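We close this part of the discussion by returning to an individual protein. Part of our work consisted of pairing the sequence of a single chain with a tokenised description of its backbone. The amino acid sequence and the backbone structure tokens for this protein are reproduced below.
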Amino acid sequence: MGKSRKKGILVLKVGSSVITVERGVLDAATIEEIVRQIILLRQMGYDVLLVSSGAIAAGMQRLGLKKKPAYLPEVQACAAVGQTQLMNAYDTYFKCRKTNTAQILLTQDDINDRTRYLNARNTIQALLKNGAVPIVNENDTVSTEEIKFGDNDRLSGLVANLIEAKRLLILSNVDGLYKTDLRDKTKKVLMKKVDRVTEEVEDLADEGLSKFGTGGMRTKLETAKMVTNSGIDCVILNGRAKGALVDLMSGSSVGTVFPAAQPKISARKRWIAYSSKTAGAVRVDGGAKDVLTRKNRSLLPSGITGCTGKFGAGETVSIQDEGGREFARGISYYSSAEINKIKGKQTVHIEDVLGYKYYDEVVHRDNLVLMDRA
């Protein structure tokens, strides 16, 4: 059995636009170049996990389809055919470099369920320890609209959280995020660093600066916001630029860098924030929001003004301010029915209202995470 590399884990997300050419044909030269760089990154001391799009596009090409089907089973059929082509392409070039690959297919349910989440993490860690390169994709052949990730940008962010990656590297077909040059409105300039993904930064994605396959720049920014808030660095860079990955990890200025927020939050809190599915929401007053965001306290019933959705004790809930904006998530000690009875009450009155009391807190601070750490 081999050893995991000391410098940490890099998650590489490769978009369809990077590894396919016209009509979804897989670009062998680009795939070989990505594999070459992954081998070099491993030699530099990093473990590497790959999240790769391209299966549906490759399947469409193999089946002779000119446009993506509208009917879900037909899309899943394309994925089933294309996934074989995609894995074979990667495996061929890794095998030439005496490196094993492993296919991992996930659905949103695998991430939502805490036990399956931990099982996936343990499997990936075992593969890395044995020197293999895990290649992750959404299990499109069984996913339904209710359990889909939406796009592989988000999947790559969830996987980065899952394995506590050092960096998430999102490979696109442009050099990074651009903004309008203030000195010449007709030109765009590459943003080398974005300290925080604000609404103003997200609006840059709507300027039509790049064209992607499924996700687009906005989903990449949403993913960058998610992982940096979890304490993981993120970089958006050009996957077609030869040597860009190695140059970046060697210290060169490449792409747009999104530095991690500090301090890094725990693995459990990352799961609560981004991987577990919210079952409902509780709304709090201004005083409660201030206590939660500024003083690192627990959520008490006295600060709750409303509750929506139907959920049981132990489920993840969205915590919203008076305007309905989510600012935190947490695991509730009480059900929605119980919260609706004790909202606005002091903790000493919980037992009087319910006839029992589990805890003073509705959401304990150890099970609560802020969604936007400025």
